[in-house]
User: What shape does this take?
Amino acid sequence: MRSKLYILLLLFALQACVKDEEKVFDAPATERINAAISACKTTLCAVTNGWIMEYYPESDRSKGGYNFICKFNANGTVRVACEMETHISAGDTSVSTYDLIADAGVVLSFNTYNEVLHYFTEPDAYDIDGYAGDHEFIISEATPNKVVLIGKKHGSRALLTPYTGGDPTTWKTYLEQFSANDYATRSLLYTVRVGGNALPVKLTRSFRAFRFAYSDVEEEIVPYIVTTTGIKLYEPLTIAGNTVQHFLLDKATGILTGKESNVVIKIAALATNRILSETNIIWELYNGSSSVINLLVTCNANLDAFRESFLTILIGDSPLINAPGRGMVFVNENDTTGRQEYSQFFFDFTPVDDAPANNIMEMTYKEAGVKSSKNDYYAAFKPFFDAIKAKSPYRVEVDPVMNPRSLKLISRLDQSFFLEFVTFSSDDI
Assistant: This one.
């Protein structure tokens, strides 16, 4: 009797739950999600001139934010442009398709390749995640004035607001404002002042994130996005009791002035003799004096014993993930297989105090690092290392000064001995 009573109570409870669900939801789950998908598509397509998308790849936003414009069409196509150069020129558009699907809510999927957006999702030579962007986004909010997206895989963040600058023919001109301000704010070193007083903090930039170093062990990463008037931090930042998020750029003076409080960032130039020792830039050899070329010809001949041919030299911060450190990476090609081989050799790049120029640097070979094969390439490159050591110190020249793209090392002992490099990769994007 007692067991029958329990069964009756259970059936009554289940019936009550069903009735409660019917009261809360007026339609089955499938109809509700289809309605949500339809509503999201209507919202996306209603903005006829496109949406400005503030996009932060990486879940920790350590690479900062980038500006896009996206126009969604009812036929399932989307046109996308970006303020930075991707696989196509900045401001140019790429058309692909999109879909809205049910998966942990309504998901916006850029389901065919887009030369602009998918640039952030592709692996690069040294990192399988590349810039850790997403091509599928959970729509966490969708209104006529704002759409909020969260990347499914990496947690990328994107905020969409209607573009009011005109029809799509104006996109490129509009996006060029961001590109110009981005270039004007790029440097290897900045100084920070609050109320006219300099702060004891070292400020550098990696991609679009400031790195505030308050000591050798304390560092704060502050992502930002470029605006038409300057920059905007991802979230408000408090510096010496002053909270700020928006900075106005004065290109003539190279000063970013806080809009909310008296915080000023001065765009400065890093001493050229510290570029190899204090930045993450990787440089590739593209030219050298006749004596340098002759040395490399000798090294190439020495590689014949390994059936290898010399290709190029990378210098600076190591691009090899399993061999962190600063120095040189020699790139060879196997004559039989065509496979590229990489050899890491560590160097010290020591600045020499020669104020006011501060452009002299000692370059000292330390040791061989990780090799991509069992071959010992050091013997093949020894003539080059011996010459580098003998010709040190070097005068370092860069161009342009604030955001260098070329670097030249000229022996102070023999000015006819020099090496010229261009950026291979850097903490810009």
